[in-house]
Amino acid sequence: MNDSLSQYAFSNIKRSSTVERIVENLINLIKSSSIQVGEKLPSERRLCELIGVSRPILREALKALQVMNIIDIRQGAGAYLKSLEPEDVVEHLDIVFHLDSSLYHDLYEARRILESGIARIAARNITDEDISRIEDNISQAAANIDNEQFFFERDLELHGIIMKASANRVLPVFMQSVNKLALMIRQKTNAMPNIRHNTIRDHDAILTALKIHAPEQSATAMEEHIRNVEKAFFYETEVE
Questions:
Q1: For residues 237 and 45, what is the distance between their CA atoms, to the nearest angstrom?
Q2: d(CA 78, CA 239)
Q3: Which of 44, 100, 101, 131 is 20 to 30 A from 88 in CA distance terms?
Q4: How is residue 83 annotated by DSSP?
Q5: Which CATH architecture has domain 3-88?
Q6: Which of 39, 47, 56 is nearest to 6 (CA)?
Q7: How far apart are CA 89 and CA 163, in angstroms?
């Protein structure tokens, strides 16, 4: 690695936020192409100088990064940046998505494909009890639209009801992975008031289609819902 790191502006780090700030600095390094996947990180001594922490604290942070699957510490050889594919660091996707924002598009595309298909199947199998639960869900969400956590839970619940109504035993396996990947981004969009208001409208459209057992209309309504959330998310992100 070249010594361009000497000009890199690392932030001073307090012990309580050591891991977070080291990860942040590594992200900045990767984005600036100073460190590539598979490349060796600077020595512990060099990192201590750059970041301004003691060696014991640095080692604690590096071990945490290893547990997070971000780096590989090789005995006697140093630390190396590992592949940051989503499946490798699924518990820390904020890091992965920060590195490659195109993954957001892939994730929304996967949701549109899977969830529209699920809605299509659900429209054929949904029961009056399921419809009643969805109606109650939307009513509760609308009445508590300013309660982010409550609204988020109702959103997850509604999609879960539709999933169960599909009566397909294989699709939940795929959705489990997608939902795990999407959890972080759904929490972010849920925090946007305009998206919560639009979600109520979209959920009503999905409910209308499901009530008349219209597979294609249900699929289209679900796909449009996820597309609307995607558009709103990227608009808000660009504005910020």
A1: 37
A2: 40
A3: 44
A4: P
A5: Orthogonal Bundle (1.10)
A6: 47
A7: 26
Same fold, 3-88 and 101-239: no
pTM of the predicted model as reported, rounded to 2 decimal places: 0.64
Q: Per the structure block, which two tokens stand in for 76? A: 């006697």
Which tokens sit at 32?
């600036």
What CATH class does 101-239 carry? Answer: mainly alpha
The candidate with the shortest Cα–Cα distance to 122, out of 173, 174, 176, 158, is 158
216's CB contacts (< 8 A; 6+ apart) are 120
Among 2-6, 46-50, 162-166, 210-214, which stretch is predicted with the lowest mean pLDDT?
2-6
* CA-atom Rg of the chain in angstroms: 22
> Contact, 121 vs 168, CB < 8 A?
yes
Domain ranges in the chain are 3-88, 101-239
Cα–Cα distance for residue pair 34/2, rounded to 1 Å: 8
Q: Measured between alpha carbons, how far is 113 from 205 in angstroms, rounded to an integer?
A: 18
Structural contact between residues 218 and 211, judged by C-beta atoms closer than 8 angstroms: no
Which residues on neighbouring strands pair with residue 72, listed in sequence order?
80
